[in-house]
Amino acid sequence: MVSIIKNCSSLRVSSVLNKNAKEFGKQYMIDDCDDTCWNSDQGSPQWVEVNFPQSVTVEEVQIQFQGGFAGKECWIEAKSDGQLKRVSSIYPEDNNTLQISFNFFISL
Fold first, then answer.
1. Mean pLDDT lowest among 13-17, 30-34, 48-52, 77-81
2. What is the pLDDT of residues 39-94, one digit of tens each?
3. 45: left (phi > 0), else alpha (psi -120 to 50), else beta?
4. Would you call 86 helix, strand, or coil by DSSP?
5. SS3 (DSSP) at 7
6. Are 63 and 101 in contact (CB under 8 A)?
7. N or C end: fewer C-beta atoms under 10 angstroms in the chain?
8. 24 CB-contact burial (10 Å; exposed 0-12 / middle 13-18 / buried 19+)
9. Which SUPFAM superfamilies does its entry note (predicted)?
10. 29-33-36 Cα angle (round to 5)
């Protein structure tokens, strides 16, 4: 399986811890380094938006939360006919392991 996230045309996040993008920014979500990560500010909601330059087919989403900082109420939305629609709920474990959020096909 090949990761398509690096081919996205834009990656946006709801917030960055202390507005310090150099140390905690969104770029650390896709840098393939286990020692870095995106850190959001506190509070809800927090979100990640990924846009692609053309239609893509998503087969699987993998997430990894830092232990003690896992999201409580999580879901994946996809835009269809110009409207965002929930396509999957996520129930992350509160540990530092790579988790598969959903494992089915969706074309975006």
1. 77-81
2. 999 888 899 998 888 888 888 888 888 878 888 888 888 887 788 888 888 888 88
3. beta
4. strand
5. helix
6. yes
7. N
8. buried
9. Galactose-binding domain-like
10. 60
